[in-house]
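Recap for those who missed Tuesday's class. We walked through two folding examples back to back. For each one, the amino acid string is listed first and its predicted structure tokens come directly after. Nothing is annotated here on purpose, so try labeling regions yourself before you check the end of the notes.
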Amino acid sequence: MTDDELRPATGALRPYLMVNPHSGGGKASRFRIAERARAVGAEVFMIDHSQPQDLAALARGAVDDGADLLGVAGGDGTQALVAEVAADRGLPFMVIPAGTRNHFAMDLGLDRQDPSAALEAFTDGVELRVDLGYAGERAFVNNVSFGAYAALVQDPAYRDDKIGTMVRILPEFLARHAGPQLVVRAGPLTVNRPDAVLVSNNPYQIDDPAGLDKRTQLDSGLLGILAARAETPAETAARLRSGQMHGLTHLATPDDVVIDADAPLVPVGLDGEAVTLRTPVRCRISPQVLRVWVPRHRPGVVPTGWRPPGRAVVQRATSRVRRGAHGRHTD
């Protein structure tokens, strides 16, 4: 199936777009996202982080006032907040990659160099049905991290340089992490005392233990799990560079993933945002609940290798669990 065979993205009469003018170093302002969105009939709300704002509540209020499409020009954390409202209300959602990393936009094939190109979905777009992950009651479009991974998100340098910060300091974080002791459970699998855990909305590629590369699908109905235990900083860095699975548990599962700890609250990185959640944290995936409008022609889509969402894909995927070298139980 090609994009030409997907459902056209049409019919929105009152689109509502939230714009973060400071995300990605002011990318939304440089590309005049607000002005261009208004030109195609969207109501635009400018996010102001200098004052408290409940973006999810604002999105729900916009829907109650008649909005029939929700969109965000900003980073992945803000995308997730509003995507959850769109999924709950059954409305289409639009991703404008105006953040720093925009991993979700990358996996959708969007042009991250020109975020304004995403607005072409209004005039020549298609609708994709993709999965949405949940950690407790919080939605995530990319991943939720625990342990040393979550500590990494707390680092001030992480927001501006995610990849560089992870490669530079993750091995040391793993080696000296002294937070709550974690236990991960997914179906018959138990992983005791991992130093770092990453649960993703669809699995990352098997040769990407740091969770930085693309996901080949966003509609498999599977959660990805990466659980890492530290040995020495040098060995950890070598594993991250080489993609070796020694010392790592890799899993793709349709089951809920439960992360427990010897503490009532744990620091968590939710789509790159630092939050605190009450334990145990139950992560789950809701298959194909998010209707994403994207331009028909996107630079990140390779026609011969990309499989657009389809319910048959989910039915096949949810019938199997792939386990890493540690098998069913890791002490």
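Example two. Treat it independently of the first, because the proteins are unrelated.
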Amino acid sequence: MEERTIAMMTGKLALVIGGAKGIGLATARALAEEGAAVILTGRRQHEVAAAADGIGPSVQGIVADAASQVDLERVMREAQQLHGCIDMLVLNAGLSEPATLPEETAEHFDRHFAVNVRGALFGIQAALPVLSDGASVVLVGSIADAMGVTPFSTYAATKAALRSYARSWAAELAPRRIRVNVVAPGPTDTDMMAAVSDEMRQVLIAPIPLGRMARADEVAAAAVFLLSDAASFVTGAELCVDGGMRQV
């Protein structure tokens, strides 16, 4: 089965927006291991270079801001020049910063929606001329899209927006056989969690039946499944990788 999967991804191009660290990096690595050529993006040159070099020669890094429509269009042009078309697109760029309702500011709101939602919307829009018919798109959402999450209500709202967009985009792009799905992790042990206190980590882990946070590679494995032909009849769906947190 493993050899068949690798053969199916060999010769294909995967673009991972927000692929320099965390879940995006783990996904870029997993796709490269499955035989795909990979382009990953990130905002910081040193992180992008380290990510690409760390995976290997099949990976190229491009410095780009996912919140910038101009940058996203440039990335798509470079991908087209290098490979002709994109077969797999991962929209992973995101941020999560706490703010209670009294603490919310216009700047905090705009920053979250610019990266988490605007980046995905204009990322897939810019990719449309470059996506091959039959391509697969994965949005990295969160189980927070259907939960009350304080003090991360704005973050949760952005992920709910992605979940809604995935349904509509799946319907709109179905005539081109382009599948659009969401992988929705629960608390995941990435750099984003590094600043969280031990007390908060225990609070996050407590409601998870499997008793721990996800690893980035576990979320990446679910994303690779949705991108692969093994999920050829799956579109508009959300695959939760949460240790049962929202399921049990």
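Answers for example two:
The two ends are 31 Å apart (CA to CA).
The chain has eight helices and seven strands.
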